[in-house]
Amino acid sequence: MDTSTAGTALDLAPSEVERVPVTFEINGKTQRFDVEAWTTLLDLLREHCHLSGTKKGCDHGQCGACTAIVDGQRINTCLALAAVHDGATITTIEGLANGDTLHVMQQAFIDHDAFQCGYCTPGQICSAVAMLDEGHVKCADDVRELMSGNLCRCGAYTNIVAAILDAADLPHEQDGGAGVRS
Q: InterPro entries annotated for this entry (predicted)?
């Protein structure tokens, strides 16, 4: 009998899989979970918290659909292990609005028609909110560069940039903008 994998996670029955206790403040509410050690923040948010606004796109950290705000930083939740971020404060798209009052970025996306199918929109908005909080945006070129990790398959980039500039109260380009450059 080959024992090279004996005692590893591959050999363990489902009830024996290592579970890790984690605690988060998610959208203003403290929540505790026991998760498998390899559970990503994306899977925790979607499967354990039932917050479906954070999307699973590429599952490789290349599209930004899974972006959430963790301890004030925008991260690709598909790449982040929940156990690594134990104790973090997490804001998802569901946590941005204040009751019935939309976050200024959410309203700007509506006002500028900055979405088509809407699949990437939660990640775009969370990324934009955290990006503006970082304080590095001075113009449309900054927005394009700093949002380049968030893809929109529908091509709504011009309107996305306009929405972000509006939410940041920054001037728009005179030529209407070229959207995010690849």
A: 2Fe-2S-bd, 2Fe-2S-bd_dom_sf, 2Fe-2S_ferredoxin-like_sf, 2Fe-2S_ferredoxin-type, 2Fe2S_fd_BS, Aldehyde_Oxdr_Iron-Sulfur, Beta-grasp_dom_sf
